[in-house]
Amino acid sequence: MFKRHKKSSTEHLDHERLTSLVNSMADGVLAVDQTMHVVLSNGAALNILDLNSSLRGRRLGSVLKPLDKNNQPLDIERIVSQTSTSTTNRDLLLQYDDSSKINLYLSIAPVHLGYGKDKENEAGFVILLRDITHEKSLEEERDEFISVVSHELRTPIAIAEGNISNSMFIVQKSGDIKLVKNALKQAHDQVLFLADMINDLATLSRAERGKLTMDVEPIDVEKLVSSLEANYTPQAKAKKLQLKTNVDANVGKLHSSTLYVREILQNFITNALKYTEKGSVVISAKPADKGVLFTVSDTGIGISKGDQEKLFDKFFRSEDWRTRKTNGTGLGLYVTMKLARLLHAEIEVQSEFNKGSTFSIFIPNLV
Prior knowledge:
Beta-Lactamase; Helix Hairpins; Heat Shock Protein 90; elongated
């Protein structure tokens, strides 16, 4: 009798230890017997399944209803019962009562579920559940990033290589300096595009890793706008556009990051020049409540209402053919918004399709 009592106590202690171990796991755990009834579960499983009552004794199919990647329901009890070796699946979905969904990782392993001599042959399955929605999102962003960047790199590299090769051929055959200059200019333009892309990618990488830092210093707003005008006037003239500035005489100095303020305005100006075929681009600055309001206005192609809502999304590029005929990664405005948040700035966009756009940013003094 004593030995039987001791053995029972040991089994009970082992069961308690196992239960504690399972409840400490971050992954959801469901143990089911051969009849597909739940014999053990943990708190993480309840969270993932969005349930708040004990699962013990309930049928697996009544508590776990996964969908495949095409949103079709799966017979989880059949899948589990036919599993003979450990298996995993990362392509499942789980839908909640409010119609929201998560990406679900599912692992199934056949095991012995019994405790003690009388139950050593009792078999069942252990199922691990994990919400991998964030991981899937990162994977999709990574795949989209690779696709976009590889596509956008291919074109300028091909154009640059072609024009340099053409220049070498011209030098060997005719020596026509005018043709050589034209070919080299086109190659140079593509190299500059690649440099801008690399700069955007580097800034994006730092922003995503939270590594962006800034030095706050007094900025002479009038000088900043004048330098931007000088930098972009050649591009404007090349497209026969007018580049104008309008700086309020009382604007004074802004205390912020010169590097990030300049980069934001450069992105606005670059886009304005890129998507304006005739007319003008105007850079303005005026004092605002404890800061400066900058605006960049153009008479370009404008932005549709639908596109305005997605302008600052990562990799977004309008389907408008006039946008698609120019190079771009869809990262410029995404990076711009990252920098604006760092500066505690507010961006506003006003645009009318085929009539132009105005990008405004209020940048507060940071001291």
